[in-house]
Each structure stands twice: as structure tokens, then as C-alpha cells.
Amino acid sequence: MSLMMAILAAYFSFISFDNLSDGKAGQIISNLTGYAVTLMSILVASGAIVMSVAGSRLIRNMTQTGHYKMLIDSMLCSGCVFLVASLVGVVFMYTPAVYDRYGVALLSSLFSVGMYSFVVSTHYLYKVLLRINN
Fold first, then answer.
1. What's residue 36's pLDDT?
2. Helix, strand, coil percentages in the chain from 3-state DSSP, rounded to 5
3. Where on the tree of life does the source sit, at the highest rank (predicted)?
4. Rounded to two decimals, what is the model's pTM?
5. Is there a contact between 87 and 33 (Cβ–Cβ < 8 Å)?
6. Are 107 and 29 in contact (CB under 8 A)?
7. What angle do helix axes 57-65 and 67-93 make, rounded to 10 degrees?
8. Is position 83 within any domain?
9. In a domain? residue 94
10. Cα–Cα–Cα angle for 92, 97, 103, nearest 5°?
11. Does some domain include residue 108?
């Protein structure tokens, strides 16, 4: 699913690049880079929340069933995708404008995969935090 989203995002951003006015591609690259860094920091904060309740009975049970590892792996995967998107964005901010088409396509692709993974991670986290209060 996320691979299909990545391909579609890259394809549509690549073919619609000519419709952008001058300077818009650079703004898109810097905006997507900023969003990726922000979402990565949200994942780090949510990981800290999960680690702070690691001694609870729910987390111990989740560790035994393997669900805790699935939650942490999902959050780690999302964070890594956003980290790569941030690094790619910084690189394309300092490359010549000739390569902006590729930067927008690559960042759109990475960001769509990151958002898919972020939604999955936050869904798992929501279910865990909901059960901790009960």
C-alpha cells in the first residue's frame, strides 16, 4: 500500500512540476522538509511516552505477546522515513534549481510513505494509551 502511494506521489509531482511558478519548487522542498522534521519529533516524543509507562502491566503483557515490539518497530520505521526525508530535503535545498523536479518527486514519495507509516504508528499508540487509562 505504501509503495503504491509512493509511486503515485512521485509520478504526479514529477509530471505536474511544469505547472509550478518560479520559486515554488524550493518552497515545497523546504515545507516538506520542515513537516518531516516536525513529525519525526512527534514520534520521538510519543516514543518517550511509551517508554515512560514501560513498567505497567499492559506493556508487560504486550511485550510477552509481541505487540510492544510491533508498536516500537512501527514508530522507528516512521521516524527513519522522516529522517531520510529530512536529509534529502536539506540536500535538495542546496542543489541547483535544475534538480528541483527530482527533489519534489522524491520528497513527495518519501513523505507519503512516512505519513502512511505515521498513521499506522499513531493508531497503535492510541490503542495502547487508551487501554493504559482503563
1. 94
2. 90, 0, 10
3. Bacteria
4. 0.84
5. no
6. yes
7. 90
8. yes
9. yes
10. 35
11. yes
